[in-house]
Please model this.
Amino acid sequence: MIERPFACIVQKPTGIPDRYDNHIERRLSSMTGQFRDHQAYEKLVQQSDRVIYEVYEGRRVDDQRELAHGVSIVKPGKVGDEFFMTKGHFHAVLETAELYYCIQGEGMIVMENPEGDWAAERMSAGVVLYVPPRWAHRSVNTHPHDELVVLFAYRGDAGHDYQSIERRGFRKLVVAAGERTEIVDNPRWIPLHQPA
Model:
């Protein structure tokens, strides 16, 4: 871990930073239960359990004075009519905000809070998005060919709560409707006040 100021270059067109400490690959098989078309999902996993997104992290001390940061790259593709996406998460320290800067591509960040309020913002190169504390967030790539590349930064001790999303789902899904993109209700979403 570096204890001095540092810079890195996010390489184009790959989106991969020239320095990072941790690389995560998420394959389709890691997204069980997250796509609404289970048959299309199972068929696609059997055909090719391909990487649907990657994360390149700069590791810092788990300390609120530090900034965790990195780049996520969501591949183009769909399961049925639903676009490839990240797992999405709340922060383990729920009162944590996050900042996103879109480097390239097109997509959406879908968000929700524990009370069930939701929001979705379109992302394209140059867009900066502020995700307030207490809001779960998920990146969705809506472009048919290009990767969605987003830089992120958040409090160093925030951690991730993926389990809540795996159990409850996200309230809204992003799907293709012909040439348009639509946000629809997730039929398997479980409100927080109901037992899982």
Notes: The CA atoms of residues 91 and 193 lie 19 Å apart.
